[in-house]
């Protein structure tokens, strides 16, 4: 009964979605308020029905109802509850349901919190949002129904793919989808603006919080996925330039560009056409990412579905929405008026520079990901595009952009003073240079490029601090005045500085862990000691340990530093009988920002055990940096100016408010 | 692509154990030679995997390739000779950094081309627009009324 209710709820959501796709648009054309307001209730009810559908599926998983085909395929009665729940989206059908759940959630949020939007804009936005939702409801109902029953219910399920039986699955996909799908709002706003033929600075102010929110979730989702891969795949890599990873990176880069260009549009009413295009492209890349992962066109650790009919269906959705949106753009965009002149050296100019480099970087990832597929389809020739290619192309673009990053916030709007900005950055530059010299003296001349990038990271961090010092006048005015200025500083200014600081933190982690890590790959016998980077690991022996739905072998290593025991590492291997697969659970120990990383290999013929031991200096900074970036975004989101509610007029502002 | 998927599935069946990338018994005695082998392995693709280098991969094929690379190095090949040998055996597919040739012209060319084109477009736009002084968009009649009610004057005023 419950699966049928879930199925029915999804059909009802589709019916509401179809209504919401048409009626508000008619209302917007005929200026009929009642028709436009219909979208408010349907958007909320769509979410309610999809949530009911999702809840029904979750109940099927939690109660291990193996008469439902997807539950049978992806669950097991002995799994811990958290994996029973997360296996709802650990498969194609369920993950698409999660996709539409989040899509309808965002639609409902616009309906509820979009009270201050002009009624026609709101009606059109909700209609466009519903077009997307309907396409995916139909996709799920026709090709990927998660509620299909089996004629005879099996006694036991086939278990979730062991690689996915990890807390990572509970967190990573929902965060990633909140990001991916969140960009649909920017898309809907762009299409609505094109339909309306009217777009102004207020539009950017409405779009920016939604984009910022999606960007924050995507940042965290990508970081979380990277950490999951790092500890789960057993060799300590954190980014593989795998097409599926690239599929999530592209919307992130485009979304970052969109955030920055929306600032220009909001403050200076410039870059309108470009911002609209970026909004379309960002969500298009999310759709392309969904296509790449869901169609099975790639086969990798992430792709747990491959069925050509689904691929073709998603491809049709892709062509319809991206093609349609770009055609509409080509038709209507020339009517949008450009405003806001600015000199090449200005805040706007710096943001254009940012957009140019981010877009090129995004294109590089796009080409690198799709070129092998296209080449094979067209000529049959097979090539590989991997990390060395991206390091050579994507790397320099990012380095150039990051070097320019501290200058941007120090330039004034309209006409900036590059020389002045450079002067104010002298101290930051000096810090960077000192770090370069210092690192060079310690680490020697083996990795000169990495040494320079470490310096760059410190330059950016110091640059972000410089920005705050300049704005508060910390070095020039009394401390009390500076403190009150700091309190009065817009939160978005703090957000910018913190997010820029965060990216430098990540950069530092990436470079340090990649360059100065150490590793040992050896076979050890019980009682033997392994030494690496000043740590001694004593192998105490192996032990069998049963788990809920697996059996495991756990090795115990006592870790010593300078003769003192500092802890125990317990890497293990788990064997899952149902799928006759096994997973490798690495053991990690944080030392400052660095980590000791130990994973197990095979037992050798002579009774010894093969192990891989790494020391990864600064590696935690990679993910800490991402969290810092996200916090910067959150702070910016809480800015009065961007609050989703009506921006109320400012009351008497503090007298010492610095000019912005 | 589908064949690749099949091969991957097949290997997953054949190798249920979680073996891991470089194994201790593969490694060469000479640390300099081993370092070269590791460096080369990072640039070579495990052909049955998804964008994994043979240095990272657990697949049996990656193991065979790692051993092969080390055998060639021990036989006195230069790095370039090892790569040439592998390309002659497996084609360009084995290289994670595709070679620069006609097939890959767009792949390597597009990023710098896009950057130059973008830069040119930005400069052209800036030139074209610097000549035309533009004021802010005039208010629509609706907006003018709103301003008027806010200011409290007659909308049709001066």
H and E string of chain A: HHHHHHHHHHHHHHHHHHEEEEEEEEEEH
CATH architectural grouping of the largest domain in chain B: Orthogonal Bundle
Strand content of chain A: 5-15%
Structural class category of chain B: mainly alpha
Number-wise, the strands of chain A total 10
Instruction: Tell me the fraction of residues in β-strands of chain B, as a range.
Output: under 5%
CATH H-level homologous superfamily name of the largest domain in chain B: Cytochrome C biogenesis protein
Specify the overall morphology of chain A.
globular
Question: What Rg of chain B is obtained from the alpha carbons, in whole angstroms?
Answer: 31 Å
- Report low-confidence residues of chain A grouped into runs of 5 or more: 300-305, 644-660
Please state the average pLDDT score of chain B: 77
Uncertain runs of chain B are 1-19
In total, the number of domains of chain B comes to: 2
């Amino acid at each position: 009964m419950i699966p049928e209710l879930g199925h029915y709820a999804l059909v009802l959501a589709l019916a509401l979605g179809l209504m919401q796709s048409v009626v508000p648009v008619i209302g917007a054309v005929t200026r009929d308020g009642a028709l436009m307001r219909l979208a408010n209730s349907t958007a909320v009810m769509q979410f309610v029905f999809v949530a009911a559908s999702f809840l029904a599926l979750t109940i099927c998983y939690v109660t291990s109802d193996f008469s439902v085909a997807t539950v049978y395929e992806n669950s097991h009665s002995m799994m811990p509850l958290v994996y029973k729940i997360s296996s709802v989206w650990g498969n194609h059908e369920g993950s698409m349901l999660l996709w539409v759940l989040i899509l309808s959630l965002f639609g409902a949020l616009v309906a509820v919190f979009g009270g201050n939007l002009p009624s026609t804009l709101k009606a059109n936005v909700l209609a466009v949002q519903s077009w997307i939702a309907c396409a995916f409801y139909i996709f799920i109902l026709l090709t990927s129904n998660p509620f299909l029953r089996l004629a005879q219910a099996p006694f036991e399920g086939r278990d979730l793919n062991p690689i996915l039986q990890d807390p990572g699955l509970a967190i990573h996909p929902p965060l990633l989808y909140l990001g991916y799908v969140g960009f649909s709002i920017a898309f809907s706003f762009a299409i609505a603006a094109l339909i309306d033929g009217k777009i102004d600075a207020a539009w950017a102010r409405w779009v920016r919080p939604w984009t910022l929110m999606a960007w924050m979730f995507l940042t965290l989702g990508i970081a979380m996925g990277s950490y999951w891969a790092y500890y789960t795949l057993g060799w300590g890599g954190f980014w593989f330039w795998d097409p599926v990873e690239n599929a999530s990176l592209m919307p992130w880069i485009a979304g970052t560009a969109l955030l920055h260009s929306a600032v220009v549009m909001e403050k200076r009413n410039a870059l309108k056409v470009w911002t609209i295009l970026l909004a379309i492209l960002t969500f298009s890349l999310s759709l392309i990412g969904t296509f790449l992962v869901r169609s099975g066109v790639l086969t990798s650790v992430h792709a747990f579905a491959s069925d050509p009919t689904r691929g073709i269906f998603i491809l049709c959705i892709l062509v319809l929405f991206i093609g349609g949106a770009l055609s509409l753009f080509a038709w209507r965009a020339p009517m949008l008026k450009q405003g806001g002149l600015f000199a090449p050296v200005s805040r706007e100019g710096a943001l254009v520079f940012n957009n140019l480099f981010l877009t090129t970087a995004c294109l590089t990832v796009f080409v690198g990901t799709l070129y092998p597929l296209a080449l094979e389809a067209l000529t049959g020739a097979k090539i590989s595009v991997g990390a060395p290619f991206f390091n050579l192309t994507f790397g320099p673009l990012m380095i150039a952009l990051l070097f320019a990053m501290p200058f941007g916030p120090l330039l004034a709007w309209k006409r900036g003073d590059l020389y002045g900005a450079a002067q104010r950055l002298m101290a930051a530059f000096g810090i960077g240079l000192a770090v370069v010299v210092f690192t060079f003296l310690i680490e020697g001349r083996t990795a000169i490029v990495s040494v320079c990038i470490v310096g760059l990271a410190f330059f950016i961090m110091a640059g972000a601090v410089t920005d705050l010092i300049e704005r508060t006048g910390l070095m020039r005015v009394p401390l009390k005045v500076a403190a009150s200025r700091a309190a009065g500083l817009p939160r978005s200014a703090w957000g910018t500085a913190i997010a820029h600081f965060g990216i430098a933190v990540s950069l530092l982690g990436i470079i340090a862990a990649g360059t100065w890590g150490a590793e040992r790959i050896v076979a050890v016998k019980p009682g033997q000691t392994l030494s690496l980077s000043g740590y001694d690991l004593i192998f105490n022996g192996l032990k069998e340990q049963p788990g809920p739905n697996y059996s495991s072998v756990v090795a115990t290593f006592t870790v010593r530093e300078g003769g003192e025991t500092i802890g125990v590492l317990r890497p293990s291997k788990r064997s899952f009988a149902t799928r006759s697969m096994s997973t490798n659970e690495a053991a990690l120990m944080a030392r400052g920002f660095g980590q000791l990383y130990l994973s197990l290999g095979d037992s050798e013929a002579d009774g010894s055990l093969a192990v891989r031991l790494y020391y990864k200096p600064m590696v935690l900074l990679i993910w800490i940096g991402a969290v810092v970036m996200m916090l910067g975004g959150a702070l910016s989101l809480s800015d009065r100016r961007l609050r989703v509610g009506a921006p109320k007029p400012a009351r008497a502002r503090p007298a010492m408010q610095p000019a912005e | 692509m589908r064949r690749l998927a099949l091969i991957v599935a097949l290997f997953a069946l054949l190798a249920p154990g979680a073996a891991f990338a470089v194994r201790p018994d593969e490694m060469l005695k000479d640390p300099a030679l081993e370092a070269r082998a590791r460096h080369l392995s990072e640039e070579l693709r495990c052909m049955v995997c998804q964008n994994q280098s043979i240095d990272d991969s657990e697949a049996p094929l990656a193991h065979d390739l790692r051993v092969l690379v080390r055998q060639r190095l021990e036989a006195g090949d230069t790095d370039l000779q090892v790569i040439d040998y592998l390309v002659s055996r497996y084609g360009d597919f084995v290289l994670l950094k595709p070679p620069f040739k006609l097939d890959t012209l767009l792949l390597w060319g597009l990023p710098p081309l896009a950057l130059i084109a973008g830069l040119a477009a930005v400069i052209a736009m800036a030139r074209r627009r610097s000549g035309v002084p533009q004021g802010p968009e005039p208010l629509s009649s609706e907006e003018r009324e709103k301003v008027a009610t806010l200011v409290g004057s007659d909308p049709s005023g001066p």
